[in-house]
Amino acid sequence: MFKTYKYYILLHLIIFMWGFTGILGKLIALDALIIVWHRVLIAFIALGLFLLFRKKSIRISNWQSGLKLIGVGIIVTLHWITFYKSIQLSTASLGILCLSTTTLHVTWLEPFVMKRPFQVSEFLLGFIVIFGIYFVSSDFQPHEYAALSYGLISALCAALFSVFNAKLAQEIPTPTITLYEMGTGFIFLSIILLFQGKLTSDLFIMTTSDFLWLLFLGILCTSFAFLITIEIVKVLGAFTVSLSINLEPIYTILLAIFILQEHTLLNNRFYIGATLIILVVIANGWMKNYQRRLKLKNLS
User: Fold this and answer.
1) Can you tell me the distance from the alpha carbon of 186 to that of 164, in angstroms, rounded to the nearest whole number?
2) Is the distance from CB of 49 to CB of 225 less than 8 angstroms?
3) CA 246, CA 216: separation in Å to the nearest integer?
4) pTM as predicted
5) 148, 163 in Cβ contact below 8 A?
6) What DSSP line would sit under 10-55, residue for residue?
7) Other Cβ atoms within 10 Å of 185 Cβ, number
8) How far apart are CA 151 and CA 82, in angstroms?
9) Nearest to 161 by CA among 81, 88, 278, 56
10) What is the pLDDT of residue 62?
């Protein structure tokens, strides 16, 4: 019993850290692309050292899998860039609210990638989320519409890499997947920075607080959180973990209120729309659980 509670505490600690990543988009005084470049570099080094210490193999079976990992690694990188861009153009609350639509993107992507039946109920929930976003954004300024666009693109990228990684995990160990994707992200962004003339030692010029926040982001929020989440899923189950992750927007919005004072920037329409979207995402999780139990009951 104590072991189970311990894993619940760990799970919510990790979700809290993920919720804090949105706040870091405001606290770190660097461009979104530079933040992500440091994040993937630090995560790649930390995860690589861990796998080396544990003497884990990082080989992949064939070049086709390697190409898939490269593609997904680029999608992961684009997800983080657009996420931080959304936050920097508006608020952490808006960025994380857009990201909460990831689960609903997954519902229409999975039938194509995982070859499962299309669910009409999920499609209807998606319409409710669209209404929630419309309600939130009906009185936006032009720069906030740009932030909304970046945020929704970020959510789509997050859904894409979640579904593709689920497919890849059937043949490749998940730590290896993440290592290759972080390495791909670093190379991809380095090429972009090279063409922009920004791949210089100036990338490492930053304040002490920015450096410490980047270490926190790369090591704890990325490498550590990923590895611990794998162990938590083994104990608590995938559904419990995925449903609990829906609390991330709530954590971020609460943190944004206390740390960034964003309640002074957001109106009641935002909170009403945010509540509607979060409730739909949670309802989608409960519906999936009910359908899973019903299916198991029929099989038995």
Assistant:
1) 20
2) no
3) 22
4) 0.84
5) no
6) HHHHHHHHHHHHHHHHHHS-S-HHHHHHHHHHHHHHHHHHHHHHTT
7) 28
8) 6
9) 81
10) 83
